[in-house]
TrEMBL record:
InterPro entries: Flavin_OxRdtase_Frp (IPR016446), Nitroreductase (IPR029479), Nitroreductase-like (IPR000415)
Domain called Nitroreductase: residue spans: 10-165
Protein name as annotated: NADPH-flavin oxidoreductase
Entry keyword annotation includes NADP: yes
Gene3D superfamilies: NADH Oxidase
Organism this protein belongs to: Halalkalibacter okhensis
Pfam families per UniProt: Nitroreductase
Keywords of the record: Flavoprotein, FMN, NADP, Oxidoreductase
Family in the record: Belongs to the flavin oxidoreductase frp family.
MF-aspect GO terms: oxidoreductase activity
Length: 247
């Protein structure tokens, strides 16, 4: 198959959660941010902001808020990528026009913009031999994160991103087979159960080998457990408070 350095970088992805004490240079941080800024955005709204956190105390507090995820503190730089319609509200005020950004569509727009920015940033970081992991735990307590980072109305944290020099060399985590996620011309449910079973075998082997036989999990069991309870019900309430009020 045809390849090049970009494709190889993308396809060699692994999340990194252990970092050396080495710091990033100012230029590396600048390039990572700049790469985020060049992500495409819906309707050119650029509905995101990046908060760069290097202060040790703040990282510690955020690590706790993210559900005691130690790497949020131990990574040299933690980025918080937010959906941000605050400056769009300002634009409306400048032109004395109604500001209609409360609908769920805008929550999607902001989340997608933020995600594209974050992935560009992670890839840029990896191009410098850095590693990182995205942190959805930033949505565990968005209210407290908003207070800590002084986030205004019409913004919400979407994800965090830990970046640093890798101090681990994990294997790549196997993905669902291509047939289970890519369809020609129309959706195909036919072989799904079979594909899930096949993937379960792959993941069982992966976990078994990675944990010296301690973990005997399968992907479907993991997902079934994950989706057996509601996730972050407080998110809806926080979004309403931030101005995303309409269904
Ligand atoms: C939006 C998003 C949020 C995530 N949140 C967390 C998180 O809070 N903590 C964590 O350890 N990993 C988090 N991850 C990493 C995933 O667990 C990881 O990408 C997945 O298990 C696949 O592993 P890989 O990235 O090593 O291929 C997140 C990934 C994404 C894309």
């Amino acid at each position: 198959m045809q390849s090049n350095s970009v494709v190889s970088l993308i396809q060699s992805h692994r999340s990194i959660r252990q970092f050396t004490d080495d710091q990033l240079s100012k230029e590396q941080i600048e390039q990572i941010i700049e790469s985020g800024r060049w992500a495409p955005t819906s309707h050119h709204v650029q509905a995101y902001s990046i908060i760069v956190v290097q202060d040790e105390k703040k990282k510690r507090k955020l690590a706790t808020l993210c559900g005691n995820q130690a790497y949020v503190e131990t990574c040299p730089v933690f980025f918080v990528i937010c959906a941000d319609f605050y400056r769009l509200k300002q634009a409306s005020e400048i032109h004395q026009q109604a500001f209609e950004a409360g609908e769920q569509e805008q929550v999607l727009v902001g989340a997608v913009d933020a995600a594209l920015v974050a992935q560009n940033m992670l890839l840029a970081a990896r191009s410098f031999e850095l590693g990182g992991v995205m942190i959805g735990g930033i949505r565990n307590d968005q209210e407290a994160v908003a207070q800590l980072l002084n986030l205004p109305s019409h913004t919400f944290p979407v994800m965090g991103l830990c970046v640093g020099y890798p101090d681990q060399n994990p294997e790549q985590k196997p993905r669902l087979p291509q047939q289970a996620v890519v369809f020609a011309e129309e959706y195909n449910k036919e072989d799904l159960v079979e594909q899930i079973n096949e993937y379960d075998d792959v993941m069982k082997k992966y976990y078994y080998e990675r944990t010296n036989g301690k973990r005997l999990d399968t992907w479907s069991k993991q997902m079934a457990t994950f989706f057996s309870t509601p996730k972050r019900p407080q998110v809806g309430e926080f979004l309403t408070k931030q101005g995303f009020t309409k269904g």
